[in-house]
Amino acid sequence: MNALVGERLSIITSKAQTTRHRILGIVNGEGYQVLFNDTPGIIEPAYELQESMMDFVDTAFEDADILVYMIEIGEKSVKNEKFFTKLSTADIPVLLLINKIDSGNQNQLYEQIDLWQKQLPKAEIFPISALQKFGVQSVFDRILELLPESPPYYPKDALTDKSERFFVNETIREKILLHYKKEVPYSVEVETESFKEEEDIIRIDSVIMVERDSQKGIIIGHQGKGLKRIGTEARKDLEVFFDKKVFLKLFVKVNKDWRKNPQQLKRFGYKQ
Ligand SMILES: Nc1nc2c(ncn2[C@@H]2O[C@H](COP(=O)(O)OP(=O)(O)OP(=O)(O)O)[C@@H](O)[C@H]2O)c(=O)[nH]1
Ligand SMILES: [Mg+2]
Predict the structure, then answer these.
(1) Atom 32 of ligand 1 has which residue's CA nearest to it?
(2) Coil, strand or helix at 142
């Protein structure tokens, strides 16, 4: 979605389940407005947070005029039968994007196209590289051709439906995904308590929430170095994102087992 929209709206890391929300990216042009919805990757959910993540996928299915299903080179198996059935029986156009073709070879790609064309006979297949922006324009052009006529849903200058605080939270979470291992990044949620924009600077206070005491120490790190690194890297990215100087203050708190707590999931915007 970032490549299609031309903005870094969704955070990107090599870890699975980086995206937890449904994130809208809007592209406005002469005579059109495209609403791209990035969703969490499709998995078999194992706990409440993951169930909410798959609910976001469900809602995107319901609203979409076109389904864009992205896999990567070498990916052969279906990750969730229920969603795959919905995809294969959808009565709207389906585009299957095979991403990361920069990291595979041609034979591998041809084999994969054959395989997926059999699994999704109605889908149009686009080999792409989101990283190198290869094939992305063709996907965009095809989407424009396929979209039904409709008045715009959002103002012409809108880029997303998410708040500034949301992007702060996500940027901080990205740094945690990048630097911490195993369960730690998955046990983290970020909440921005204060976002104050002044003339020359944005002052932000955010809380990193973990599920257990032991994880708090891990996040903070020896002599606070871990937390400092998260803060510095997130601040730099946010200064680019908001095009303004940022002062970012981080706190770490324990919010026991929040991932399994419906009330907490609601509070963090994972549930209605
Ligand atoms: N080589 C290569 N790597 C890519 C390309 N596109 C994305 N990546 C890498 O793939 C990894 C995953 O990217 P994400 O954007 O987090 O993937 P996602 O599909 O949104 O995954 P989740 O949000 O975790 O469900 C990152 O390390 C990206 O840098 C590509 O075209 N080529
Ligand atoms: Mg993602």
Answers:
(1) 100
(2) helix
